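cron nightly-structures :: item 1 of 1
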Amino acid sequence: MTARADDQGIGIVTPSHNQGAFIAETIDSVLGQQCPHLDYWVMDGGSTDNTVEVLKGYGARIKWVSERDGGQAQAINKGLQRISSAGIIAFINSDDVYLPGAFEFVARYFQQHPEAAWLTGDHFIIDAEGRRIQGHVRAYKRMLQRHPVFRRLALANYIVQPSTFWRRELIEEVGPFDESLRYCFDYDFWMRAIQKHPLHVVDAPLSLFRIHGLSKGGSEFARQFEEEHKVLKRYTSSRTLLGLHRLHARLIVFAYHALKR
């Protein structure tokens, strides 16, 4: 891939549903970035909490839609279709946060590396109150990222979603997010992407990934692993890789329960 004149423009989608307690922090983290050409859409799935009131409070500073949708992946796809000119694309959930300087770093990286189709960066995990937690999980993902290849991604999803950005051409090449998936539509996208282009891993922390009682990562991780395994079967028939993925998921679930005791 080659750099284009609009590569400095960044398009962001935030899918949202009943995250009024966190969404303002997410929006502020987007609007606070140094980005001269930002195309930002909040796609709300008809929230019944105070989300719409929060969105209205931003006036013309953001673009948003609130209507029932078919789930998170569909909301993201609808938002991406509304982004008209940005050369760099990403999505961030309505309870996660971009760190200051993230967009500036990403735009500069893509400008300096025209061969890069996508990248993922570092992150911190936070709880509902914004306190940093699970440093061991972050360290484990960083270890897995040292060799960002398909086989390692088949073992475990080491890609940090809110710290991941890609060129517009990538989604045109590999297709949109799979709207039939509830938990692992991003993993499915990563699997398609990594077979086309190498993943660039950068050391810079770009986001805060929030885990709380109502988040999928905090309350439904076992179901998430099960769907992830079904997704993996789309891309490999290797019994070794499938078996290692299943074993790894069971070990992670066991460790999670042990740590909660």
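cron nightly-structures :: done
The chain is about 40% helix and 20% strand.
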